[in-house]
Structure formats: structure tokens, C-alpha cells
């Protein structure tokens, strides 16, 4: 079992602590949180071991799980990496692109593995259709949330949209060509609503919308590719796959047939992939343990987390133009 320590015992940190404590792949050594009052509450309620010094905890483990505010990600990760510890780090990987690039170099130098907590990659709905998404040419995403003060210290792009950025970059095998975006601050000092259009070198276009002041929650993505339409509801964990193929010479009474102006006929049919229920956060933590134990690449590498951050920051920069 891998000895693991958690940095940060806030809302998400407590979820990580519980899952790691119950995992068969990890031995939870303890946690560190600079807020001693909060740390005491966590100890009293759950009984986890509290370390008063961050370096003492890092020295005692094989893996450091960083669930702290984004501004502290770089410093925490650097401390862990330079001590030869593997790191799981929540999204976004760091506060700046330069910090992320430095972590990449450090991880390579000290030969440690790192995974970024882009949890939607482990959403059961996305997992059910991930291999079906092939060369999409138009993507549309909507990630809307009701207002919650937690997270409003950063733009909605880094709070919400970055989930969709990461998913899109994982399925579009092409470099970003151009980004156009707009953002509006409504109740926060940073944008609460944002829309971005990402154009890729291969011709794919992605249109992303995020809001954290909506009246209802929504997390949907739609992928359009040749002869297929794939819809993923990350919130409800549902999928819709509509495909087209050449129509048979003698269609059945209930076959859905479309004919274009040239007379070509296509048959529309539906696929219903199995969606296997899982705990996405547990899944990402377990796959990281597997990557360490088998000396393979994590599902969401530090490099991929850096790429998602770079695009997110380019979107934010586009607001000013």
C-alpha cells in the first residue's frame, strides 16, 4: 500500500480523506491544514492524524494529495516533488502557466509521477462514450451552476470551464489555432459568466459556455463528428449516441431513413452504451495508485493539466481584447 498524506482539509479535502482512508491501495498517514481550528474539528469528527508541520507529513508518505487553494498548489507541489514524493494535485494544476511548467521540469528531474484532478475524465457517462468520440469537428458545452461563494476568488473559467477544456483537449488531437472569448462579472470581482470559441488546427471548433450564477445546474457536452452525434450529461450521468450509416436497399417499416438532395440515403440508429456507476473521485485516486505501482502514465498527466491551464488562461486573456 502507498502511504499518502493530504494537504488541505476543506470541503473537497475531507472527501479525499474519507476515500483514501477507505481505499485498499492507500494507507492514509494523516493530513495538514494551516487552519488549526478547522483541523481540530476534522480530527474530532473523523479521527484522522493531524500533522502540525507540512514538511513532517511530506517526509512520512509516498504520495502527497494536494487539495489546497489554487494559490498554494505550486509551493505545496514543489515541496513534495523535491523530496521525491508523487503528487496528486487538484485542478487547476497551478495559478500560472509558468508555475505549471516548472512543476513539469521538477517532476522529470526527481522522477516522480503526478496526476491532476480533472475529475470529469472519470465521470461514468464520459467513460461510456470516450472511445466512441473520434475526430469531432464541432463541440458545444454548457456548464452552469447556482451561485456558491466558494470558488469565486477565481474567474469562472478556472472554477468551472476548465473541466470542459480538459475533456475537449483529451478528445481533439490537434493544436489550438485561435481563441475568442468574452466574460462578464456580475457579483464577483472576476467573471461569473464566460463564453469561449476555440478553433483547432484540424478545423474542429469548440464553443464553451460557463456560468456560476444560473438558476439551475447543468453540465452537458455535445460532440458532432462524421456520421455521429454524441451527447454527454455529466450531471445526470446520461448519454445519447445517434449514428448514421448507409441505408439498406430494403429498409424495415420502422427504420429511420434520411435522403439528401443528391438522392443519397442514410439510416439513423441509436446506441445505448452501458454506464457503470462509480465514484469519480475515488476512481481518479485509484488509477493514480495503479500508475505508480505499474510504472505507467497517469490518466491525467501534469502535462495535460498544464495544457488545460494554458488554454484557460488564454481564454481569460481574451476577455481583455
From TrEMBL:
InterPro entries: Gfo/Idh/MocA-like_OxRdtase_N, Gfo/Idh/MocA_Oxidoreductases, GFO_IDH_MocA-like_dom, NAD(P)-bd_dom_sf. One of its GO terms (molecular function) is nucleotide binding. Residues 2-118 form the Gfo/Idh/MocA-like oxidoreductase N-terminal domain. It holds the Pfam family GFO_IDH_MocA_C3. Transmembrane segments: none annotated. Residues 155-216 form the GFO/IDH/MocA-like oxidoreductase domain. PANTHER family: BILIVERDIN REDUCTASE A (PTHR43377:SF1). This is Oxidoreductase. It comes from Flagellimonas eckloniae.
Amino acid at each position: 500500500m502507498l502511504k499518502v498524506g493530504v494537504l488541505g482539509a476543506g470541503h473537497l479535502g475531507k472527501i479525499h480523506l474519507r476515500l483514501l482512508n477507505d481505499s485498499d491501495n492507500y494507507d492514509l498517514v494523516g493530513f495538514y491544514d494551516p487552519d488549526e481550528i478547522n483541523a481540530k474539528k476534522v480530527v474530532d469528527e473523523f479521527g484522522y492524524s493531524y500533522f502540525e508541520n507540512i514538511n513532517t507529513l511530506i517526509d512520512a508518505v509516498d504520495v502527497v494529495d494536494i487539495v489546497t487553494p489554487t494559490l498554494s498548489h505550486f509551493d505545496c507541489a514543489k515541496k513534495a516533488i523535491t523530496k521525491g514524493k508523487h503528487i496528486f494535485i487538484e485542478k487547476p494544476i497551478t495559478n500560472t502557466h509558468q508555475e505549471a511548467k516548472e512543476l513539469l521540469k521538477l517532476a522529470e528531474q526527481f522522477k516522480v509521477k503526478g496526476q491532476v484532478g480533472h475529475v470529469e475524465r472519470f465521470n461514468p457517462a464520459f467513460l461510456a462514450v470516450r472511445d466512441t468520440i473520434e475526430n469531432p469537428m464541432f463541440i458545444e458545452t454548457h456548464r452552469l451552476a447556482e451561485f456558491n461563494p466558494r470558488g469565486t476568488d477565481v474567474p469562472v473559467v478556472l472554477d468551472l470551464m476548465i473541466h470542459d477544456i480538459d475533456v475537449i483537449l483529451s478528445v481533439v488531437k490537434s493544436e489550438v489555432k485561435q481563441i475568442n472569448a468574452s466574460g462578464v462579472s456580475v457579483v464577483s470581482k472576476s467573471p461569473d459568466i464566460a463564453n469561449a470559441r476555440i478553433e483547432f488546427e484540424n478545423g474542429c471548433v469548440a464553443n464553451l459556455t460557463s456560468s456560476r450564477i444560473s438558476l439551475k445546474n447543468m453540465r452537458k457536452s455535445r460532440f458532432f463528428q462524421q456520421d455521429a452525434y454524441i451527447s454527454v450529461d455529466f450531471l445526470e450521468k446520461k448519454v445519447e449516441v445517434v449514428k448514421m450509416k448507409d441505408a439498406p436497399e430494403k429498409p424495415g417499416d420502422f427504420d429511420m431513413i434520411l435522403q439528401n438532395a443528391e438522392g443519397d440515403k442514410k439510416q439513423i440508429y441509436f446506441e445505448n452504451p452501458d454506464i457503470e456507476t462509480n465514484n469519480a473521485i475515488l476512481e481518479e485516486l485509484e488509477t493514480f495508485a495503479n500508475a505508480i505501482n505499474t510504472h505507467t502514465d497517469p490518466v491525467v498527466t501534469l502535462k495535460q493539466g498544464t495544457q488545460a491551464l494554458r488554454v484557460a488562461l488564454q481564454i481569460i486573456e481574451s476577455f481583455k481584447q
